[in-house]
Automatic annotation (TrEMBL):
NCBIfam families, A to Z: thrC (TIGR00260)
Family per similarity comment: Belongs to the threonine synthase family.
Short name of any one Pfam family annotated for the protein: Thr_synth_N
Keyword Metal-binding (UniProt): no
Transmembrane segments: none
EC number: 4.2.3.1
Keyword annotations: Amino-acid biosynthesis, Lyase, Pyridoxal phosphate, Threonine biosynthesis
Pathway of action: Amino-acid biosynthesis; L-threonine biosynthesis; L-threonine from L-aspartate: step 5/5
Catalysis performed (reactions): O-phospho-L-homoserine + H2O = L-threonine + phosphate
Gene Ontology MF: a single term: threonine synthase activity
Cofactor(s) listed in the protein's UniProt record: pyridoxal 5'-phosphate
Name of protein: Threonine synthase
Main function: Catalyzes the gamma-elimination of phosphate from L-phosphohomoserine and the beta-addition of water to produce L-threonine.
């Protein structure tokens, strides 16, 4: 079995997992993938008997081949001890006939915590073999930024710069990032949208001048976004965990198939599910749930990916994305690991903003992936409906996932709840018929109807000073990264 990851755009680019984690993306712009994923067969019976931490080890063991058993166990132990408010890490709640997988019980109340509590540990371990420092560049549409800041704050020999779209994240998401403490962090609002920030970050990873300056300082530039395999693979675990729940609660029998509904913008979360499927998880279908920026829905229905459209700011800002990075990895696997094909699609996307895949490939993708999208009005209606019928308050992203799950023909369906409703208090309250002008007081009003208390990390926002106020243009991003290398490392 091959021990190396390769690039989706260059098979000759072979790299160990540790190096892939430290590089983030491949120098020619491809994403790292592992060709032998479908030769792994995770023992489901064993999964159903083990704890979350044990399952994380079982699942990540074959994917992170150059980590020793001891290293991997230690990383997992450090990531998941006392950092989640639920001992299950990712508990399930039955809401109507849908199984809602709650991924927001970590330090920053979003699903990103599941991977961003572990990635810093993996990166620290990988750095030991390099004798270098790392600078992490992260683009965020709201959730990744805070989770990455929290995960990497004050980690020795690692600095982090986060770029979020100015005025295009929720008030709570903004406060979470703008109040971030830590002697190795920088946070910037950028003039533009998430796609602008993500594209620029990718460009910076390929910038030879920046690379030269970094390497003179013995610094590696890397990513905390799901383009980094170290960010992506920890998310595979919760798909197996939800299967464990369904078996252990006698909803299904071992071997039965399950469907998943996944709200997603960058395609990372649903791709982690597809990885679980390749590794032996019995899956009927994945439903890709989108908001008004339904570039993925259109792609899955027509085979045409076209980002040439209006960018819509929605009440589910974490999914306000038109360039879905991880789709590249799906195309790689589904096309039979055809790097020429991936290259052609990606260069067409770069040059014209669109590409089209052959009908045969579309049929193959459609046999596993369904899709739906909800605009803001439908999202609010969904939040209202779930609350009125089931007494459960969902955040806008999770409501999109839930309503998509309801439309699915199959049962059981696990719907991924990606963030706490408190992160979007104003919009959730408005959906429920109450308005509140101020986000922090909105959190308190929401508490009166939510069964869960306000998470500690959000409750403390009221008392924390704003530490990061800089608003920069996209073209200034390179300069601030250079400065951050000086200041932080
Ligand atoms: N939804 C994300 C956007 C970045 O996605 P990632 O999974 O690649 O980090 C966010 O909230 O920042």
């Amino acid at each position: 079995m091959e021990k190396y990851y390769v690039s989706t755009r260059d098979k000759n680019r072979k790299i160990s997992p540790k190096k892939a984690i430290l590089e983030g993306i491949s120098p020619e712009g491809g994403l790292y993938v592992w060709d032998d994923l479908d030769t792994i067969s995770i023992d489901l019976e064993q999964i159903c008997k083990q704890s979350y931490q044990e399952n994380a080890f079982t699942i990540l063991r074959p994917l992170l081949m150059d980590f020793s058993d001891e290293e991997l166990k230690e990383c997992i132990e450090k990531a998941y001890t006392n950092s989640f408010s639920s001992s299950d890490i990712t508990p399930i709640r039955k809401v109507g006939d849908i199984y809602v997988l709650e991924l927001f019980h970590g330090p920053t109340s979003a699903f990103k915590d599941v991977a961003l509590t572990l990635l810093p540990q993996l990166m620290k371990t990988a750095l030991k073999s390099e004798d270098a420092k790392a600078m992490i560049l992260t683009a965020t549409s709201g959730d990744t930024g805070k989770a990455a800041l929290e995960g990497f704050k004050d980690v020795e020999d690692i600095g982090i710069c986060v770029f979020y779209p100015d005025q295009k994240v929720s008030q709570i998401q903004y406060r979470q990032m703008a109040t971030q403490k830590g002697n190795n962090v920088k946070v910037f609002a950028v003039e533009g949208n998430f796609d602008d920030a993500q594209s620029k970050v990718k460009e910076l990873f390929m910038d030879l001048d920046l690379e030269k300056e970094a390497s003179q300082k013995n610094i590696l530039l890397t990513s905390a976004n799901s383009i980094n395999i170290g960010r992506l693979v920890p998310q595979i675990v919760y798909y197996f965990e939800s299967y464990k729940y369904l078996v252990n609660h006698h909803v299904i029998q071992l071997g039965d198939k399950v469907s998943f509904s996944v709200p997603t913008g960058n395609f990372g979360d649903v791709l982690a599910g597809y990885y679980a499927y390749l590794m032996g998880l019995p899956v009927q279908r994945f439903y890709v749930a989108s908001n008004a920026n339904h570039v993925l829905t259109d792609f899955l229905q027509t085979g045409i990916y076209d980002r040439n459209r209006e960018f819509i700011q929605t009440i589910s800002p974490s999914m306000d994305i038109l360039i879905s990075s991880n789709l590249e990895r799906l195309l790689y696997y589904m096309s039979g690991k055809d790097t020429d094909f991936v290259n052609a699609c990606m260069s067409s996307l770069h040059q014209t903003g669109r590409y089209q895949i052959p009908q045969e490939l579309l049929n193959k993708i459609q046999s596993l992936f369904g899709c739906a999208y909800l605009d803001d009005e439908q999202t609010k209606q969904g939040i209202r409906e779930v609350y009125n019928k089931e007494g459960v308050v969902l955040d806008p992203h999770s409501a999109i996932g839930y309503m998509t799950a309801k439309q699915a023909e199959e049962r059981p369906v696990v719907s991924l709840a990606t963030a706490s409703p408190y992160k979007f208090s104003q919009d959730v309250l408005e959906a429920l018929g109450t308005s509140c002008q101020e986000e922090l007081s909105a959190m308190h009003s929401l508490q009166k109807i939510c069964t869960d208390p306000i998470p500690q990390g959000l409750a403390q926002l009221e008392t924390l000073p704003i530490l990061h106020k800089e608003v920069i243009s996209i073209s200034q991003m390179k300069d601030v990264v250079k400065q951050a290398m000086e200041d932080l490392l």
